[in-house]
Amino acid sequence: MKYISTRGATAHKTFSEVLLMGLAPDGGLMLPESYPQISGETLAQWRGLSYPELAFEIMSLFISDIPADDLRDIINRTYTAEVFGSADITPVRTLSDGLKIQALSNGPTLAFKDMAMQFLGNMFEYVLGKEGKQLNILGATSGDTGSAAEYALRGKKGIQVFMLSPEGKMSAFQRAQMYSLQDENIHNIAVKGMFDDCQDIVKAVQSDMSFKEQYHIGTVNSINWGRIVAQVVYYFAGYFRATEHNEQKISFCVPSGNFGNVCAGHIARMMGLPIHRLIVATNENDVLDEFFKTGIYRPRTAEHTMVTSSPSMDISKASNFERFIFDVTDRDTDQIRVLWAEVAAGNGFDLSLLLEKIHEQYGFISGKSLHADRLQMIADVYAADNELIDPHTADSVKVAREVRQPGELIVCLETALAAKFENTIKEAVGEVNIPRPASLESLETLPQRVNVVPNNADVVKLLIRETLEK
User: Fold this and answer.
1) Fewest CB atoms less than 10 Å from the CB: which of 95, 168, 312, 320?
2) 388 plus 239 within the same structural domain
3) 113 labelled catalytic
4) CA angle, 439 as apex, 435 and 440 as ends, to 5°?
């Protein structure tokens, strides 16, 4: 399996090379030359597998440069009942109205990012150890990526983590999860701005090739292909848990801001998983909803990005979107370069002529959910099913109920637990006991460690340089 860039000007790479590189040297994102195709016979063989067994079968198709025994060991150490709370890893449950919810949020940081980050942490350590290299991770988070990355990489040999987050824009729980870590290889940086500013700084640093090479800069943001391939697995697992046989089709409703989670669903569908529709649920920052309804992609500037009660989706420039548009344009690298030059210039682009193809061939539709909607969904699910869902999952449930077709089986991806968003939950249902693991009971009272910096890539580079040269 070789990997290519969406911009077409990067030499073919192996999985291990792609894992450590982040953005491609030409500014694009890395993807497989082609997607492996899964036959009905293979699907039948996979149906009875455990989660680690299934992960090995799927990841082996994308990872050809790591010995099978080593890959199996990494996966078996990653996906355990001890880490994820049950042998199912991503159990599926059914609400009283027939919607299904796949729990992706039972890892150490109570968010779906753990599903990929725990794998990435072990894979990074393996590859760096084999090659005798060091890696300095620069990431940006709107709430969950940061803590998932830090918990997966804390104490790992040969790895330093520099994580950018928007100052004051995450929940108190999310901030405490990150800033309370005292490990010497973890460095939290709060940027005076929005998540999109943090993401732009990461891309600016990644684009400075001399700095990137000198300081061995990599990324764990959803642009990292290792994260995407790990996320593909749970779409297959969710399909098998939600259906009785492989003649059934299901749809997935995915809360989305940066397009990484649903991009993995797109790849699973392209591989042959019987997915009817991929439903993108946005919050008030509805750039993706606008695109899937009109074909027009208009990223907003940071000052036009709203702060909402589903903060992990407060994103107006979806960094993974380029992978999907690469496929939609029949992998035309020239067109991708033109389109993303327009994005870089702040103009966006119009693919309305391809809208029917996007809906019919690729199965995408969308909807959006506002603050009042997610409060209503949290309250409704609590009343009907006696369970608390987090605001992002509530956005997914709202959109799924809105667009569900007669007889359509929809799995909503639960992307976090309610405990991470206590204020919003209490606004929706009043004073109620919100369960959280005992290990996180007094999280917000722990001492916190963070550097606050202006929205400036050069300041961040100076901070990285000074830290590494100590």
Assistant:
1) 168
2) yes
3) yes
4) 60
